[in-house]
Prior knowledge:
By secondary structure, this protein is mainly alpha-helical. The chain has helices spanning 2-15, 17-35, 42-78. Helix 1 crosses helix 3 (42-78) and helix 2 (17-35) runs antiparallel to helix 3 (42-78). The protein is elongated.
Amino acid sequence: MVVENAALKAQNLLNNEFFTDVVKMQRELYIRNILDSSPEQGDDRESAYTKIRALDEFIATLESMAKQPEIEKKRFKIF
């Protein structure tokens, strides 16, 4: 099934140490950009914050995809 294949691929990414290390490094870079910015660099902080939120959304999407088969099974039990 297509959903299960996508779920497996998403779970494999989330379990991949290299992938999670890169995500963590990017997140830390964006946080460092915020902390190291001067008071007048509001646009730079806003840009870094937007990137953090996008990264969080990306990971949340992968987590949702990975759980989709479990959600589908529970849905059929309800109806």
